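Morning run. Coffee first, then this:
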Amino acid sequence: MFAHLHNHFFGSYSDSTLDFTPALKKARADGQPAMAMTEHGEIPFFIQYLDTCRNFSLKPIVGVEIYFVENASESILRKDSERFHLVLLAKNQKGLKNLFGLLSEAWIKNSYEEKRGLVDWGLLGQYADGLLALSGCFYNLVGQKFLREGEEAAELVLRRYLDIFGSDYYPEIGKHGIADEDAVNDFWLRVAPKYNLKPVASNDVHYLDALDWIAHDIIIKTRYDKVTNFKIDSQQYWLKTGTEMLRVYEADWLKNTLAVVEKIESVEISRLRSLAPQDILAIYQPGKLEAMFADGRAAHPAKIIYIDEETGRRHIQEVLQKYSYPEINGLSDEEKNRWLLARLANIPRRSEPDTEKVVISDQPLKEFIPLKRGLGKVMTQFSAQDCLALGATVVPARPTALQAELGRIFHRA
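And here it is:
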């Protein structure tokens, strides 16, 4: 058996149609012991993932596919949009805390035009304790160094990663029919014995079943609310069973995923201390809330923007007017719309700060709730509801109707 270690769920905004419940149910039915969550650059549905893993008796493996550059400040100064991928998994509770801290620092200090938080060598070394690394898809720094500059340059970068992670660094082998990916795979298999590396099979999952590539294609084509010609180079990113994986991956690569699972300790939710009423009232004193934002004890909660049914229908119709999908050509227009809408409606599209509310604590938020930037504001990656579930206090950004709000906070069921 094996475990999928690189998976994108709804939290990979505009790049996944994969919902927790059907995905984890499918993994469990296939006998897989775990299924990692590795969203792009943030982790908005952490609580929902943990809850669903428990529902299906799967070991939770919390991770993120980060955006990596060698020097974040230089990349930002040059307005260089290129970035590389690296998957980080929390091995234990310390690793989870460091993962949250890493993501927060990347977004707050190294925000690239508020599109993504960047991690560089300095930040990675600072927060590496308790983390395990997978190389990421073939658009990782080692792989791209190999493709552009050759084996020696790639090995120099590889050794830097090994200096940080040691035996907790694993090359991913992806088999999606992409020439550059195959070349990077060959590189990994050549150098693996030299560095005692254990390659792991990775399908980089973005959707549930094989035909769902069509819905995934539509969601990425319409991410800017208009139809673009963007497309993925492969249609192989579905949640494959063990039997399907064995058709294209070596058995040892699959077995190595289980070695990673064994290294991972199940993590638990850490909760913030509740604030006393007088402490909440004090935040409205002049300058107090601004100071809390500055030292990381306040942030606006995330407001998750979903694809509603009307928008979903419009996007489907606009894409189908320009592109044909032979796999569903046998369906009537009504059947196509119904089939696609079932896969697109209510998918999270993005998040933005809810500026009417503030999440506050007397502890650094980033140790419990990862932060980011949006619309010029510091915000949490979690919704207000999830912040409350973690023990944070959520109050109005302005003192209006404060008495009613305090009643809600301290007398909710």
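Residues 44 and 381 are 5 Å apart (CA to CA). Good start to the day.
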